[in-house]
Structure formats: C-alpha cells, structure tokens
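Our consortium's second objective concerns turning raw sequence data into structural hypotheses that experimental partners can test. To show how far this objective has progressed, the report includes one record in full. It was chosen at random from the queue rather than selected for favorable results. The single chain below, 120 residues long, was entered without modification.
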Amino acid sequence: MSNITVAQNQLLEIVSTDDLLTGNAVYTSDIIYVAGNSRIIGMIFSDQSSAAGGLVIEQAQNSADFASGYVTRSTQSYTGNAVTSNTFAITIVAPFARIKYTNGATPQGIFRFTASAISQ
C-alpha cells in the first residue's frame, strides 16, 4: 500500500473508483497524508445500499497507527438508489487518513466513489 501526500491550499482528489463491489465487499483506500487541510469531502453513487456504518474515514497521527488500530473513526451509512448520490464532509483531525466503504449484501451494478482533501 502506498502513501499519498496532499499539498496545502488545493482541492486534490485522493480517492476515485468505479470498481463494482460484490455483496459485503470492502473498498479500502491507500493511507493519505492530509496535514494542512481541513476537510475530506466526497460523493458516493451506488444502486445498492452500504452496510450499516458502511463509510468509514479513519484518521491517525502516523501511518503505522493504521496497522495497530490507533485511529479515530468517523462512520456513516448510505441508502443507494439509481437516482441519488450521497455526499459527505469530514473534519480532518490528524495528519493521516484512510477511507473504507463496505457494500451491503447485494452486489452493485453501479458504483462511483470519489473523495478529495480541501484546505478551506
């Protein structure tokens, strides 16, 4: 897994995928260095609902903390349908972040997931 660095004062896409998830499958991003930014924002578009608490944004003081579980977690659940996209915005509280999305029980036919770090 590689680390991604986000420069200050810019909107930088840190996650972008349209790979379909099978039932209960998990997408996990790389560990992202987000220090100097204030929020992680994004959009999820799926024809299926997430698992309960399906969006998890983990934040940590250093990249090694993810393996040991020393992270702060923000979780949200989403109900998918073919018409609506869902957005999210999470305040950055630590220099490193990782994003996970767990699909619900039904395999996806449509999935678009993007997230960006922003300093404003």
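The partners drew two points from this record. The helical segments are 65-68. The longest helix spans residues 65-68. Both points have been shared with the crystallography group to help prioritize constructs.
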